[in-house]
Write a structure and sequence with these properties.
This protein has 145 residues and is mostly helical. The protein contains six helices and no strands.
């Protein structure tokens, strides 16, 4: 095997050709596992949610808060979290904490519970009433409830 075969660049050290890029992509797709994509996707949605909440760095990094995008990110994270939890092991609590932070940011900015938070639309105990504010009535989504 020559050194050029191991070099990701194209002939004579230039940019890779379209064929070489496609071959590298096909090799990556053969080797990547669904679990890896799931965890990477979850991390990306957490990052995007933080940016849409205005929580990421300074305003130049985060941009203006976008509640519609933040709400969607929260819903996606809630859907993926149970699938990713067994893969994350002890790190699963970090996802729960990040989700809680996003939901709190949503509630603070919108003046209403975030998607999936206690007290949101829908039935359940309490007849859809808002939880009391203050200690013991934060309205945060708690895993398993």
């Amino acid at each position: 095997m020559s050194t050029q075969d191991e070099n990701p660049q194209g002939p004579e050290g230039g940019q890779p050709t379209q064929e070489e890029l496609m071959a590298a992509y096909e090799e990556q797709m053969r080797n990547i596992r669904v679990e890896e994509v799931l965890v990477q996707s979850l991390a990306s949605f957490i990052e995007l949610g933080g940016r849409r909440a205005g929580l990421a760095g300074g305003p130049e990094q985060a941009g203006a808060p976008d509640l519609d995008q933040l709400g969607l990110a929260i819903e996606v994270i809630r859907a993926l979290q149970p699938l990713a939890a067994p893969l994350l092991g002890p790190n699963a609590s970090q996802v729960e904490q990040a989700l809680s932070q996003l939901q709190v940011a949503y509630a603070q900015q919108a003046g209403r519970p975030a998607p999936g938070q206690a007290g949101g639309a829908g039935g359940g105990a309490g007849g859809g009433q808002q939880p009391p504010s203050g200690a013991g009535g934060s309205g945060l989504w708690v895993p398993g409830q």
